[in-house]
Amino acid sequence: MTIVPTRRGDGYQTWLTLLLSLNFGILFFDRQAANFMMPFIQEDMQLTNTQIGLLSSGLSLTWALSGLTVGPLSDKLGSRKPIVVGATVLFCLCSMLSGIAGSFLLLLGARLLMGAAEGGVMPISHAMIVSEVKPKWRGTAMGVGQNLGSNLLGSTAAPLILVPIAIAFSWREGFFFAAVPGLISAALIWFTLREPPKGLETEGQPERERVPITRALANRNVLLCALIAVLLVSFLVVTWAFMPLYLTQLAGFDEAVMGWIMAALGISAGVNAFLVPWISDQIGRKPTFIAVCLMGMILPLAALYYQGGSWFVLAVLFYFGWSLNGIFPLFMATVPAESVDPRLTATLTGIVMGIGEVLGGVFSPTLAGALADAYGLRSVMWFLMVLTMAAFALSLLLEESAPGVREKRGLYPLVA
After folding, report:
1. 298 by DSSP, 3-state: which?
2. Measuring CA to CA, which residue among 21, 37, 166 is closest to residue 111?
3. Which of 45, 129, 274, 404 is the most buried (most CB within 10 A)?
4. 393/294 Cα distance (integer angstroms)
């Protein structure tokens, strides 16, 4: 007898989305710890800007390689939950290793291991959400899963918690503190979530053969999303790596105020975790991409030209400029899955994320560090401007993929 998979109720779907979002938030808390404590680490270890860029680049490299291998492996094995739990425990241990590092090379090694542990979590989390959450809420749920926890914890709470710890004790205690919450979230995932059943990813769609991965990668939207990932992952990692230094060394803010300004980015991304994907469900993915890429230019312009005024006003400008964070789950997972085959979500997310992390997250921080050493930190802000302008141009070429919007326009579902 054939067992037909069933989707659990709204309460479970909500809990799964929020728990995976919390887990990814704790993961990002660990990843961001080095960035927000970098003024203390740089002074203690006497690091150059190029070395700071290498720390960010190294983590991005192993993060990308992990996403490229773990996502497809998960699709092939059909196993999700054990991989997420194992990776969560491992990145907690890597945070502790960062805290005991006594040299640049040892700290770099700890960050490399952390990237390897963390890289596969998001592709698998997206696949679990696609399998369990109703298709009409897919964009919103994937936005919450990737953006809400990561930004409330990794971008908002992290600077407000870790900077005071570094001031009161040292940056090493900050890394130790960052390791603890992941063990709790790993236990919650293991004991409260089920292994997602197969067959629900394409609910409500005609039965069809799985699209070959080579054909999926040739899809125009997939290619455009990969290129946008390169640009906007670069924007994020360069901002995380160098904005704290820019605010303290060039803009003249002390470390505590810097923490509050950077926290505005997390608040923005936390709000836009709901708002931007929801808007894209209503008006379409393409106009949403175009609008937020234009808004992203506000952040580097504000850093360059808003001088001598209230730090709170600068934080508000940063809030609006960081709204582009809301489209990350859309170009990393939602649009590729809608354009090709939802059953390939983990694979496509791993590939798009991996390309973005390798070509953007690996090379851009080192390039930005070299620019800063050669021309000063202001050159990094101009680099951010170029990245957002290029992402805006690519967004103009996207084909609309939101199922609800296409249905309202009388278009067939977008499949390869």
Report:
1. helix
2. 37
3. 129
4. 10
Q: Give me the residue label for tokens 């953007």.
A: 360
Token pair, residue 298, equals: 């506000």
- Of 377, 353, 385, residue with least CA distance to 67: 353
List pLDDT tens digits, range 269-325. Answer: 778 877 888 888 888 889 999 999 999 999 999 999 988 778 899 999 999 999 888
Burial of 198 (0-12, 13-18, 19+ CB in 10 A): exposed
Q: Note the pLDDT tens digit of each residue in 100-136.
A: 888 888 989 888 888 888 777 877 787 787 777 776 6
Spell out the CATH class of 10-201+211-408: mainly alpha
Q: Is 218 helix (H, G, I), strand (E, B) or coil?
A: coil
d(CA 360, CA 64): 10
Sorted by sequence, the CB contacts under 8 Å of residue 408 that are 6+ apart come out as none
Mean pLDDT of the chain: 80
Report the predicted TM-score, pTM, of the whole model to 2 decimal places: 0.68
Distance CA 70, CA 195 (A): 16
Q: Which of 355, 345, 353, 337 is nearest to 75 (CA)?
A: 345
Euclidean distance between the first and the last CA atom of the chain, given in angstroms as a whole number:
33
